[in-house]
Amino acid sequence: MASYLGLKSLGIFVLALAFGIQAAQGKISCENLNKDSCAFAISSSGKRCVLEKHVCRTGYEKYSCRMSEIEAENLKDWIETDKCIKACGLDRNVLGISSDSLLDSHFTQKLCSTRCYGGCPNIVDLYFNLAAGEGVYLPKLCDAKRANSRREMSEIKSSGYVAPGPESGFKPGNFMVAPAMAPY
């Protein structure tokens, strides 16, 4: 039993050492991250990592970490801390990410908290861009959340114009907007 615990401890130490060396060298590759460090990580190329689940024919679930095409603003080689995951009300085992979470008042309360908004730039950048994709300015949403939680929903619902559909005859170039930068 003692030798098993010794081998297990040695294995954990070797993995931690390898992971620490990889992070220290600035060579984070999404494909080399495990399930517990993938979500909310950023590779050395600045692309965000995403956790994927594959179900085998036998019903066995296998998780893999892949690099997405989404780039993080001014961040590279980043594995989000457990402290920020908790402060922002997130789950490290999330599969994909959606702006729908911005409609959840419990989530936005944590996202806009001083601990998250003021201390977790990776998560703020991610949700800033998700909100901007929906026409919502995250600082304004957080201000509304702090001022009046009922006003928060109206900020989301009246967040801006909706681009016309393909049948409307408008040219898409008239509706192009430069992406906003997340506040730091």
UniProtKB/TrEMBL annotation:
Tagged with keyword Signal: yes
Tree of life domain: Eukaryota
The entry's keywords: Signal
InterPro entries found in the cross-reference section: PAR1
Signal peptide stretch: 1-26
Record's protein name: PAR1 protein
Organism, as annotated: Fraxinus pennsylvanica
